[in-house]
Amino acid sequence: MNGESNESNENRENNASGEEATRQRVVVVTGAGTGIGRETARAFAAQGPQVRVVAVGRRAEPLAETAAGYPGRIEPLVADVTGPGAPEAIVRETLERYGRLDVLVNNAGIVRGGGLGDFTRDGVESVLGTNLVAPVLLGQAALPALAESRGVIVNISTAIGQRGWPRDSVYAASKAALETVTRCWAVELAPRGIRVAAVAPGAIETPIGEHSGYGPEQLAALREWQIGHTPLGRIGRAEEVAWAVVQLASPQASFVTGVVFSVDGGALVK
Prior knowledge:
Elements: H1 2-22, E1 25-29, H2 35-45, E2 51-57, H3 60-67, E3 74-78, H4 86-98, E4 103-106, H5 121-149, E5 152-156, H6 169-189, E6 195-201, E7 204-205, H7 208-211, H8 216-228, E8 236-237, H9 238-249, E9 260-263
Parallel strand pairs: 1-2, 1-4, 2-3, 4-5, 5-6, 6-9, 7-8
Helix pairs in contact: 2-9, 4-5, 5-6
């Protein structure tokens, strides 16, 4: 009888594992047109046909490039996360397409570098609006769906938010605040079965510098300085950050919440 019982238990466990493997998971990635967002969307889609990714960004052409090679797995959604009603619209469109939401990756972000004497009100508000306000409102809009799926939120922070860096105070502050939001949500949402984590990239090869108005000489100088402050002695790759996001969102990380996971080549410990 014990043998039969053990065999029955094993069958149930195998069936449960099979169901988990085939159950559809729906992921929303913001800022998915380039860089970390693009590689994150592709990393989730590469997990198999059971994963559907809604790739959110402001421009259709880069989103189409993100989705190339993953037909039916990555669906572009053109939206500005800072726009009025955008968080609700993103969640509504996702639920209309797929009926569920399992993972929200708040990746969209902007940099407006400069010293204290260089900032304008519009510049400060745009950084905070994209890097902090938009993730908070999108998390709020997604909350009912994530509670139903017992889902995961992964916020993309930055190594700069965890120490002092010159000429990046507002950007660093916006990301440091996002890390605080991550820890608070982890405690607040745990009773609803939602896990929350953050990934803090260091110097990563993405177009964010060009998008922020840096010229070639400025970028070269910045890269040289970053490499000098990174123990591994190189610039990171977007797919290395995407790996961390996918791991934190995986069912195997079911006992992980409230963490800020650094992918920075050791910059924070130097």
